[in-house]
Amino acid sequence: MTVKLSRRSFLAQSSAGAALIALHPYSAHAATNQAHLRIMETTDIHVHVFPYDYYADKPRDTVGLSRTASIIGDIRAEATNSLLVDNGDFLQGNPMGDYIAYERGMKDGDTHPVINAFNTLGYDAATLGNHEFNYGLSFLEKSLAGAEFPVVLANIAREQGANARQDKTLVKPYVILDRVIEMGDGTKHPIKIGVIGFTPPQVMNWDRKHLEGNVQARDIVETAKAFVPEMKEQGCDLIVALSHSGIGSADHEEGMENAAIPLAGVDGIDALVTGHSHLVFPSETYADRPGVDLAKGTLMGKPATMGGFWGSHLGLIDLLLERDGNAWRVVTSTSEARPISKRNEDRSITALVADDQKVLDAVVQEHDETLTYVRTAVGKTAAPLHSYFALVADDPSVQIVSIAQKWYVAEMLKGTEHAGLPVLSAAAPFKAGGRGGPEYYTDVAVGDVAIKNVADLYLYPNTVRAVRVNGAQVRGWLERSAGMFNQIEAGSQDAILLNPAFPSYNFDVMDGVTYQIDLSQPARFGPKGEELNPGAARIVDLAYNGQPVTDDMEFIIATNNYRASGGGNFPGTKDTIVFEAPDTNRDVIVRYIVEQGTIDPKADANWSFAPLEGTTVLFETGPKARDYMGDVKGVTLEDAGEGADGFAAFRIKL
Ligand code: MN
Ligand code: MG
Fold first, then answer.
1. What predicted TM-score, i.e. pTM, was given to this entire model?
2. What is the C-alpha to C-alpha distance for residues 192 and 175, in angstroms, rounded to an integer?
3. Of the ligands numbered here, which is closest to the C-alpha atom of 206?
4. Which of 51, 179, 465, 643 can pair with 649 through a Cys bridge, CB separation 3.0 to 4.6 Å?
């Protein structure tokens, strides 16, 4: 069910009577020497043209340029003068992007579907996000060849000169749009609008294998300071910065990733669109930050917006411009980000806009092909990938996540100060029964692995993080995980093993070390990470390469943004983050499977319960677990009949 976006309060009946015209106050009140200009931004689209989640293989009302396009249509109807820009990260980030890059390819004359959608909507300009480099420079060039709008990026060069203005940039650093603007009195004036683009210089690390030796990156603010005066010299009346860079610190640091605030502070920039962080500006996220005025929607006094991600919002800046002699100035402005959907109190989602049919039509063929792609094999697995025993033994469904995370993080840390350290991986079974019920398990059979299955292996759209920790923190991390289990009295029979208050997503299994869990000891941490028994120790025989892990040994742990930023309150997280990946854990797993062809994530039984003489416990899992009972290593299992609510019971001899 979709409903039409409610019109704003300045709705007016047109003189013709039939159609409704929503007139923005700036358009309604612009004086003879004034004009109303609207800057519309999409950002971080990540190939989400259809309102569809290809991993889940079902429609999704929270995403899709086809929905954002309806807002674009509304906004264009509300004012005469508008610009539409995309702020980057459009080529990669969902299975349609992977389908084009890995499967269909870009032959001469092909138009990339997301570029096709942009062409349909008549974009005025776009910049490149970091993810535009994920599939290599040749793929990028072929994709951009189809764009019927200028693509600008000032801080990535084929060859660097003595300063940014001497650089041979990869694409045009900026463009000057010669436009005619309609004034308050209906007269028309030429105006030169300069549009310049920036991307995080971190692309050199994130896509080193594609970029090293081919391009070089400059600091965003340094680059802006070089080019903006040149744009002024070339006669720009107004300069808009496309900042594929988030709203971070107000203090400029050389090479900073999220540079929007210091960028806004560069003289000559009149307005900026931001992104990369997948957040919304203006929004409470950015309350009380130096350099930010939420009420005015400005950064360093310059109007700014950030339109969420995957088409979730349209970023909008309304400018009231005044012509003073031959110069233009911004008199006043407002900023907002208009959502395509809303979340109701019961967590259900209501779509706020309908699809723009011409956007769907432009991409329907690739949409259908992507559906086929996600449903067919991209690789093979030699081991069944299931989570039926993930809470009681080392498990292939968690193992594959850790293998891919370690592979990726080791590559990303090459050439950094963290390169020599052992890389461990922490991963939890996300689908492991519990409140999800007896069918709620990962279960991928031996043989073909389809893209859809990766969503099954990795449920959440997290991004990869690496933390640098010591041995004591590794131990603390595992003690936190071990709160999953009830305390078991040695010699007791058939006690219930799992603490139902403990969600499985907080049961991190650590790969790269070996350890046992002594269930006879009390848990150090409770289900929310609260320290219950500070001295308690369930983790025994913790070793790396056969050597006991000492408190001061150093390790890298590959994990996700949720855990690393404090989700679940694990020891060793938050201030230990040394790498924030641009990639989702899911994408990393897909890339790993595509590159490996066949994967064989055999669990290596690197963790197990410590033996407790004459003790048994009961454990419930999905009834399909019976098919795999014989494969489970490191734990002695026996069928204990039916459990509650459709679950199957197993007895474990500790
Ligand atoms: Mn992005
Ligand atoms: Mg393992």
1. 0.79
2. 10
3. 1
4. 643
